[in-house]
UniProtKB/TrEMBL annotation:
PANTHER family: DYNACTIN SUBUNIT P25, GAMMA CARBONIC ANHYDRASE-LIKE 1, MITOCHONDRIAL-RELATED. It comes from Vibrio japonicus. Pfam families: Hexapep. This is Phenylacetic acid degradation protein PaaY. InterPro entries: Hexapep (IPR001451), Transf_Hexapept/Carb_Anhydrase (IPR050484), Trimer_LpxA-like_sf (IPR011004). Gene3D superfamilies: Hexapeptide repeat proteins. The lineage of its organism: Bacteria, Pseudomonadati, Pseudomonadota, Gammaproteobacteria, Vibrionales. Signal peptide: none annotated. It comes from the Bacteria.
Amino acid sequence: MPIYQFADVIPVIHPSAFVHPSAEIIGDVIIEENVYIGPLAVLRGDFGRLIVKKGANVQDNCVMHGFPGKETILEQNVHVGHGAIIHGCCIGENTLVGMNAVVMDLTRIGKESIIGANSFVKARSDYPPRSMILGSPAERKREVSDDELKWKERGTQMYHRLAERCIKELKLVEPLSEVEANRPKLSWELTHVPKAT
């Protein structure tokens, strides 16, 4: 996987974290335990430090980039959906950033919030905990419900398990030329997944 030193700073990746081989990790990046970094994600710590705390995930095609002289932080169990951009901000613990959302410089998102897909959060925004943040430009619409928070937490737990499984089970192979008899199916130990309201 492409891991780059920038100036005198080398990225730090905990051994229990999974970073996909196509992701790029550059400079002052700290990735803690049981983090999942997806395919083609770019974490570019060449302006300021990026910290991805324990149990967070940064999914496919996401960009995380710093603001000069500031830390960009994903707190514990933050869940960043496909294609999102995290730029020079702090995302509070157990928050969901929806697919293709953009969160701009010097913004603070309170813990247990949900940022809707395709939302644009303006620079220097500040949201309290459990905010449902939607729109472009984004606004706080209401408080996140208990059921929505459980739904979010279930998705994050799946990414904890995915990080563990990818370390053990993801392998680079040549494709088969045809579907084999008795093709195996992926197995996930899923019980009830709460619906978002």
